């Protein structure tokens, strides 16, 4: 029973502005931190690929079953996500330790020669994310102050 | 007003901003930023930027302007793909925002929030001012991207887990809510889509509605929703929705559905103000709000045969109404007359003058003062409930009759034209929600009006108002369902005897299908 | 009849809250787990 109501002049102006804005809408990525490796808009994959998340995919147990390289991949390429967090947890459970100065993961290769309460010195395996491979470092001093 | 900026300030600002942007984008470990930040602040000091509050203001204004000019330059450069353009823009704005966040976090002494919040308000105010100026300047060529990115990133920065910021959460949310209110689509229509993104960002909603203690964020958020409804109203008021309106409307429905699912109590508490702002013809959107009910409440199936609604314990409790709606009953002498009429049914002229208070024009479609109508109906209803309760009765369709309150409702039903009566019946139907004393009383009231109507036109219109709320897609408010079911089931209303029930085959079919589902 | 609100991309029957994964008013599906930021130690933010 109210019928239609013609737009007032100021409403017409508002509509014109709204209409103009309609042609450059925000995208979901605009509201997120820049994330080069995790594009916000999903990439369509063939239907016969798994489309759903696997059950229990966001638990540490799940990550512990992944290979070490995969864990490093997740840690370096899915920055700031829960996956990164869980990958770090799984790596720690495998005696990897994150060195904040070098931003790399280290694992003891053997019992260190020197251990005191500031550092330990010995041979370590570290993960070189530039060459994407594990390497051995002899006589390396692992300072505790850089232990995350 | 940058014409009286001290000479060289623009160049200094540009130099410092560029310097910071490159530092920010190269630092590959934000955790070492305090060192970087402190040295940068010293540089700012060296350039005399931090000497006075006024200089700081000018610095931020200049820096913001530089970023915004950059946005327009990059967006108007055809060689950039949309993604490239965004990445370039975000490198600048994210860096600038990060600097602001660090300054807010480190400004003033530890434990003294005022300096921090003042700085935040200053910066928000500057960007707000530049946005509004920009919109004036560019008109339909206005670009929202830079501002959207600025607000969302600054909000995310200041929402990251940090003991100092956590303690400031309410002040930070208040600062952002006020800024968004001042940027509401009616004032910044060119920013309306970004604005809706900002006020419905999941972290913004999480903080303002869930994490701030004692629901102190709720009034802030209700103001923003009101802004949105008021902006949309003239465009939703007419059935034809242009594409830009459709998109914003659909977005609003999504936000309301999230609120209905996660914060139904919020919708319950603020429903009255929302219904004032939502055009009467927006039935589905309004139903989303009216369908909300407190999560700890179990609603009996409205289709249960012989449901004794008045036996429900909840019908004794009044719902929370977070709106000082009585204030809408103006002018003051009208309110005075109303109260005296409710008390003593005098002055006798009150009823005959009622319409003249409600009618504000002769424009079809906008003849009546809707907020006054809504407030009047709710006020009279609440007075009726307390009047009946004071005599230790529970309101029902018979003891609500023969009272000053019902006089007023009868008068409105009979004296108003179709438009006015539609708004009056809407005002009642807007109270048919989850089990509470208002739902119960108004359910009885509308049924009583139907039973006592002296013309079939009134009965038909009551039916239409209820029906139009029922035939839209779900959700449907509980109170609406039980009222309509009572109307078609209870023989005292002789519902099926009225020819408007049979005025067309599809209408009869419609009623029968509703009846079948509840009988 | 208005919109079919179940077709707006929100899982209205979800036991979990919707707002933590709400992808915005113009998105027609919620955020995936990897879209939602997680609070990791700042040392991990290596860029």
From TrEMBL, chain B:
> Where in or outside the cell is it found?
Nucleus
Its Gene Ontology cellular component terms are: CCR4-NOT core complex; nucleus; P-body
Question: Keyword annotations for this protein?
Answer: Nucleus, Repressor, Transcription, Transcription regulation
Report domain CCR4-Not complex component Not1 C-terminal positions.
156-515
Say if the entry is tagged with keyword Oxidoreductase. Answer: no
Question: Annotated Gene Ontology MF terms?
Answer: molecular adaptor activity
* Gene Ontology BP, a term: negative regulation of translation
Q: Where is the signal peptide, in residue numbers?
A: none
- Kindly indicate whether the keyword Metal-binding belongs to this entry: no
Write out the similarity annotation: Belongs to the CNOT1 family.
Protein name, UniProt field: (Mediterranean fruit fly) hypothetical protein
The organism is Ceratitis capitata
